[in-house]
Amino acid sequence: xxxxxxxxxxxxxxxxxxxxxxxxxxxxxxxxxxxxxxxxxxxxxxxxxxxxxxxxxxxxxxxxxxxxxxxxxxxxxxxxxxxxxxxxxxxxxxxxxxxxxxxxxxxxxxxxxxxxxxxxxxxxxxxxxxxxxxxxxxxxxxxxxxxxxxxxxxxxxxxxxxxxxxxxxxxxxxxxxxxxxxxxxxxxxxxxxxxxxxx
Length: 199
Ligand SMILES: Nc1ncnc2c1ncn2[C@@H]1O[C@H](COP(=O)(O)OP(=O)(O)OP(=O)(O)O)[C@@H](O)[C@H]1O
Ligand SMILES: [Mg+2]
Known about the structure:
Layout: E1 3-7, H1 16-29, E2 34-38, E3 53-56, H2 60-72, E4 78-82, H3 88-96, E5 100-105, H4 109-121, E6 126-129, H5 139-152, H6 181-198
Parallel strand pairs: 1-4, 1-5, 2-3, 2-4, 5-6
Helix pairs in contact: 1-6
Residues 16-17, 40, 82 line the site of magnesium ion.
């Protein structure tokens, strides 16, 4: 039976899709079969040049089919579900069928406010500092966001995924299958993190 890892959350633009793709890519790099399940209403991406497959979960019946497939699949594969944002009902459905729930959030008041509420709503979810500034002058402020969440939800924060321009290629319709070394490292590190929390 394959495991299901989901990236969800109401706030748009916090890195759900980016990190879901990066996880699927990184898992494949680690030798773990991975599929990416798309649930938003955008155009379905092609997996022709990708090392992982893309599954259409854009309608609830399709999503349920994807979950059924994951449950039937033998071996140690991982299905990575990308939530669409702004759809509480779909997020609750995805959360209910996930082995690991990850809530990406970015370094700003609004995102931290939303993720704090969702940490309470999904008591087993992990928060992931996403697109995290690496050498920001605001490093003290950014660290404060993590400290504040850690104080309220101890032990439920993952190490930040850094802002890395090269990672953006992964979510493009025109992705050509090759990633620059910083993006490869990003994918591998994130996939390792996901494997750790799956244990
Ligand atoms: N680690 C990162 N480094 C650089 N850019 C990033 C990173 N993570 C996300 N981004 C950029 O931030 C933007 C939003 O990311 P993404 O589309 O993954 O968010 P989302 O949560 O899926 O949004 P939506 O709710 O609209 O689906 C994109 O332009 C993406 O390229
Ligand atoms: Mg998205």
